[in-house]
Specification:
Glutaconate Coenzyme A-transferase; 8-stranded mixed β-sheet; 21 helices; 36 strands
């Protein structure tokens, strides 16, 4: 979980002096004796008390100022999830002598203070906090919260911060609430009756506003391109806290009818709801409702969620529990990370020994995705940090780094250089998958470190030290007669196992026709030699991949390799049970498209005369093909169609 944001206060947009007076008079009349000033309410707190303060953008800043400003307050222990206002007091004289601050999450403004020991950090899942309050493992005497004005029935809303605040209110002896007309009234679990509140402090002020850190748009766009491949129309999304996950949302404009079950609503969700991209109508659980536990953003989000029945704000121990999350079919968990090591361990709460955010509930959403029918989880992160000087894909996590997601839970990891699929993969396979999506500058060193750690074979070759974004142009899809869809894309180092499995699935006759002799063994060295020779321009292999339940199988491979200037040798093979579906002809055309983009104008093929199907295919695709019999073989020369032009954005030869 990457904090990736900071908080500020917007200029207060007043409700109006007369309306505020009317509100105070109404509340005072209805709830005689409960309406007090902030100073009066704070003065009831005893020294040595344990206080919970409402968190995030829902924190009662007016009450916090009164608390800190009361010089009689001493030995007060404060618990807060997302603290913003207290950060402004850390350097004040005597503050740390009078208050002990315990955080369940370390936002940007508190990071240095946590590192210096000025505040303490309690690692816990947010979903477990309510139980810690109920069981008195964390004992709370007083809570300071912020609520919306109560309705005519005396019911107010916790608004943007239901999360763990509701249980803190239930567990505390004394409840002090700041009534703020600027707090939106949200639907869900966050309703409170005024009779459950001891002191009411009417005070209007703008809520905390979350400033998202800027991200490199080119990197975010590339990561979004890959993440988008893993998201289908109608999927239900969780988007983890952090600037990168939320930056990806604006690139999902081509999706339809997405659903939301997440921990936090931000401004980034609102345009997608307004455009009808997020509709929640195909959710099988909590249909038509965007489910969340708190909201952090700006007035854009606060006004949109106000009294909006499309949102359901629940408690963290319900929203963020794997069993509840897993009830959403086709669930997609999208989270961020600070580091991912080559075995799949994910660090998201610290940079080495410096706490950077918090545990949150990343692991819960990832496990919930595993429980979901058709679900999967995604860790999305830039490949580097510190201006490209540091790789985020690492051989070993930094000393002191915390493991937020276990290697057994990690599924997909995405950087701007591609997608690594880890679930069900061995350590050596994970090394190749992850080094393949690392920044090109670090790939060779990662492989070297993996060898030192004995994760991979000593003769393992590193992936190409090149940005292969251009090969995205080589991807395509073909609808098969069977009703399935086949993805066609370039062969990658991480395909070694699947490639070898494909070879061993072929019949002897098919192998003989392809290789011109019987091949009984297709070793890892042979596979490595194959892709090591590829530069994706002069030499490339395209593979056809079909989903078989949870497994993706290679069912066809087509290859071309430079033979002479502007002419490439071409060959391909299709698995027997997928023949006669037009796959060979499709891959033939895709190979020509790629070859043409790289400066070739003709193919050459060597074929056995008895392989009449292949000869027929050549003549079908190239009516002017020249077939010459030479001994036991036929040589076929095929000139490209003039109408075949390189796709836009293709690299030069």
């Amino acid at each position: 979980m990457n904090s990736g944001s900071s908080a500020r206060s917007m200029p207060i947009k007043k409700t109006g002096i007369n309306k505020m007076r009317e509100l105070i008079l109404t509340i005072d009349k209805e709830y005689k004796g409960k309406v007090v000033t902030a100073d009066e309410a704070i003065s009831t707190i005893k020294n040595g008390s344990r206080i919970f303060i409402g968190s995030g953008c829902g924190e009662p800043r007016h009450l916090i100022h009164a608390l800190v400003g009361n010089r009689n307050m001493n030995d007060i222990m404060i618990f807060q999830m997302l603290a913003h206002t207290l950060a402004d007091y850390l350097d004040y004289p005597s503050f740390l002598e009078r208050f002990v601050v315990n955080l369940f999450f370390v936002p940007i403004k508190m990071q240095q203070a946590a590192f210096e020991g000025k505040v303490d950090y309690i690692p816990t899942y947010l979903s477990q906090l309510p139980q810690l309050f109920r069981s008195k493992q964390i004992c709370i005497e007083t809570v300071l919260i912020q609520i919306s004005p109560p309705d005519r029935f005396g019911i107010a809303s916790l608004g943007v911060s239901v999360d763990v605040t509701l249980e803190a209110v239930k567990s505390a002896k004394t409840v002090i609430a700041q009534i703020n007309p600027r707090m939106p009234r949200t639907h869900g679990d966050g309703f409170l009756h005024v009779s459950d509140i001891d002191y009411l402090v009417p005070y209007e002020e703008e809520l905390i506003v979350l400033d998202q850190e800027t991200v490199e748009e080119e990197i975010a766009g590339r990561i979004a391109q890959y993440v988008s491949e893993l998201i289908d129309d109608g999927n239900t999304l969780q988007v983890g806290y952090g600037h990168m996950p939320y930056a990806l949302l604006k690139y999902f404009g081509n999706k339809n009818d997405l659903g939301i079950h997440t921990h936090m609503i931000s401004d980034a969700f609102i345009p997608l709801m307004q455009k009808g991209i997020i509709t929640n109508k195909y959710k099988n659980f909590m249909t038509d409702r965007a489910v969340a536990t708190f909201c952090m953003g700006s007035r854009i989000a606060y006004d949109y969620i106000d009294n909006n029945i499309q949102f359901y704000f629940g408690t963290a121990d319900w929203v963020n529990t794997p069993g509840i999350i897993g009830r959403n079919d086709n669930f997609r968990s999208i989270s961020s990370a600070l580091e991912v090591d080559l075995t799949g361990q994910v660090c998201s709460d610290s940079v080495g020994r410096q706490f950077f955010s918090g545990t949150g509930d990343q692991a819960n959403f990832i496990r919930g995705a595993t429980l979901s029918k058709g679900g999967l989880s995604i860790i999305a992160l830039p490949s580097t940090a510190k201006g490209g000087k540091v790789s985020r894909i690492v051989a070993n996590l930094s000393a002191g780094a915390g493991v937020a997601t276990l290697r057994t839970d990690a599924n997909f990891v995405v950087t701007e250089f591609g997608i690594a699929q880890l679930k069900g993969k061995s350590i050596s396979q994970r090394v190749i998958e992850l080094s393949q999506i690392a920044h090109p500058d670090f790939r060779a060193s990662l492989i070297d470190e993996a060898k030192k750690n004995h994760y991979i074979f000593p003769d393992q070759l590193p992936p190409l030290a090149e940005d292969l974004i251009f090969i995205e142009e080589y991807k395509s899809r073909m609808a098969l007669k069977s009703g399935k869809s086949m993805l066609v894309r370039p062969l990658l180092p991480s395909d070694e196992i699947a490639y070898r499995n494909f070879f061993y699935s072929l019949q002897k006759e098919t192998i003989y026709m392809r290789f011109f002799h019987t091949v009984a063994i297709f070793s890892r060295k042979m596979a490595q030699d194959h892709w090591a020779a590829m530069d994706y321009r002069k030499n490339i292999s395209l593979i056809g991949i079909v989903q078989d339940k949870g497994n993706k199988e290679i069912v066809a491979i087509g290859t071309y390799a430079e033979m002479e200037e502007k002419c490439a040798e071409v060959a391909f093979v299709v698995r027997e049970d997928f023949q006669n579906q037009g796959i060979a002809g499709y891959i033939f055309k895709e190979l020509e498209r790629v070859a043409s983009a790289n400066g070739f104008d003709s193919f050459h093929a060597t074929i056995f005369p008895e392989n009449t199907g292949m000869i027929h295919l050549c003549r079908k695709n190239y009516p002017d093909a020249k077939v010459v019999r030479k001994g036991d073989e036929c040589e076929v020369r095929m000139n490209f169609h003039k109408k075949n032009v390189p796709p836009e954005g293709s690299p030069p030869k």
